[in-house]
């Protein structure tokens, strides 16, 4: 199975919202992006969507169901690349909106520090995380969402689970690249792991 | 000047919402509370109310204006004791509601870890924080509020300041017990200190 | 089974190093301490001793084997009360030295923030943590130790486990008051939980 | 003045320790590195060296004095790029050793989370941090060092300052790219900012 960090950017990789084909030096063609992935660590953000109660306590975790290009179903979280010139915060918001739809109303944490830094290596076993396509370093955040999630792009649905369900080995086995571990670290950071 | 950690519990110290005068062993009379303060560290929570923009970035800090029993005006933040049987989260919510009113709609952070632990000692100089009445250990949180603040109890008003204003020495000089330092640590934790 | 937060202070509860029986108002007799436990949250510190490699990565977790007053064997971590007038840092150091001996050479973290705040309630189920004797709020820290541990007091031995062993349900079942959860949160905070 | 994130890699940019000129696809020539800097966020690590006392409390901050290529003197901290295939931890250790020498004995924190994420943009004003050469995202850590620092490469000396000295505007003015702010955030994270 091909394990990959999702990077849904169908219309190219335009920083600052410019269109593909422009002469902007920040533009990366598909070929150049593939080349860069083999030579440099790629900066990612990941978001674990959660529901909280009136006291801020996490009650549910949102797990995405996604179909891979080969038609396999996998479970994952919100994840994507930070572009040239984009803040980490803007990248996180963009990927949340891409994956959860415009009505999710994510409440990004005020803190710039992630709950963990997940390091994905192309060779399995270097760390808990693996991406056969690239060396990616991901800043991971827990993000309460207060609205309605309507997955867009290639995410098929969001499944809301209790912290107990989200921490199971059964779920971890369905998740790509070691993200079952990331879910547990997210749960631990909000005191919801037993 | 008498520097004190605000602890506004005019009708006594009833855990679990029971009324003063009950035979609940958790009840502490004024005399007993005064006695305990001289013998044990008291557990406190403190909340720094903030306004955030749509991306979660802190734009303003809410500082309380309070009149001391001697009629002096001081600047402070939300602060109060954790009662027997009460969770830290419930205590934080209770004091936020007491000080900011029922329409403030605080969004408590999902994480149980405070941005800092402020240790108030009766003898100045032991730490950055000082309370001549007691040894208090305070778990301090940044709390976005999305509603309208109408101070209750002895807090006269909430002043919203930019991060720059909140970090000035002028404000720190108006704050009791070293809370100017606490404001700066709060700003640093959200990346809003320069 | 009687689940308790260890609080080994055989010669009384003398703040500032004074001897039992002095007229120091900070002194708590056994009776007074028992009384306070039923009326106020008690402030605790807990330390999870770890071994790290040359790169700072956690390789082993130190778990204490302790005999309860009834002769039962339980697994636990370093834990104890913060005294009146004592800093959190001093309390943590004191309990580490008490439980691990004077040659453990603990390297206390420079940060004042704990990796989690563990709330122990006398009634099970309020939180993940339980202490039938009291309401205790514990600031929990991961502490690398570089020396030799020779348990003192009622701790019989320190067992060094890999992160994998320390995260098992089997170990959690042997630990009192929900501290199996605390170990997992500690592992998560150092990225050593899978 | 040309403000730059130091990236001292005089013998090329060899991941996995290979020599310049090899056919390793991970190798970036000077030209390719310059090209990449204009198209992608570069991942950096930064370390604030500190001295701690026996209780883990920070007593001094190590600030590097460095000569720029134009012969200007600036103050800075340990900083450098994460290479392809390298862990964040290894990169931090490598740059600490490069800048502080082999006898500094840095004690890397067991936690993978930085105290802050500093985002350097080529255009000033986007964030608190600025690097006219590139968009760099830096994971910043406080690192106690227990040995002797003998700066190598282009760092001329390490100056040890008290937390008070390190927080002054005078020092901030001497630091490049907004790193005076980074020092204050570092101090705040260890409770050493007033």
TrEMBL record, chains A, B, C, D:
- Residues of the region (Disordered) are 1-27
What are the alphabetically sorted keywords of the record?
A: Hydrolase
Q: Which Gene3D superfamilies match?
A: Nucleoside Triphosphate Pyrophosphohydrolase
User: What residue intervals traverse the membrane?
Assistant: none
Under the heading SUPFAM superfamilies, the entry gives: Nudix
Coiled-coil intervals? none
What Gene Ontology terms describe what this protein does at the molecular function level?
A: hydrolase activity
Q: Which Pfam families match?
A: DUF4916 (PF16262)
**Protein name in UniProt:** NUDIX hydrolase family protein
Which species is the source of this protein?
A: Microbacterium marmarense
Lineage in the entry?
Answer: Bacteria, Bacillati, Actinomycetota, Actinomycetes, Micrococcales
């Amino acid at each position: 199975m091909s394990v990959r960090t999702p990077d849904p950017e169908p219309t190219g990789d335009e920083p600052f919202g410019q269109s593909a084909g422009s002469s902007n030096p920040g533009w990366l063609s598909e070929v150049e992006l593939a080349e860069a992935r083999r030579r440099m660590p790629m900066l990612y953000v990941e978001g674990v969507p959660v529901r909280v109660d009136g006291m801020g306590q996490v009650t549910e975790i949102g797990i995405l169901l996604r179909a891979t290009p080969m038609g396999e179903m996998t479970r994952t979280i919100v994840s994507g690349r930070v572009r040239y010139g984009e803040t980490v915060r803007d990248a996180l918001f963009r990927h949340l909106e891409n994956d959860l739809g415009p009505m999710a109303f994510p409440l990004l944490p005020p803190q710039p520090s992630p709950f963990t830094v997940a390091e994905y290596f192309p060779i399995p076993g270097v760390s808990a995380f693996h991406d056969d396509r690239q060396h990616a370093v991901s800043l991971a955040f827990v993000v309460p969402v207060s609205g309605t999630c309507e997955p867009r792009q290639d995410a098929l649905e969001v499944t809301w689970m209790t912290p107990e369900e989200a921490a199971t080995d059964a779920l971890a086995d369905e998740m790509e690249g070691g993200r079952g571990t990331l879910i547990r670290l997210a749960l631990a950071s909000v005191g919801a792991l037993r």
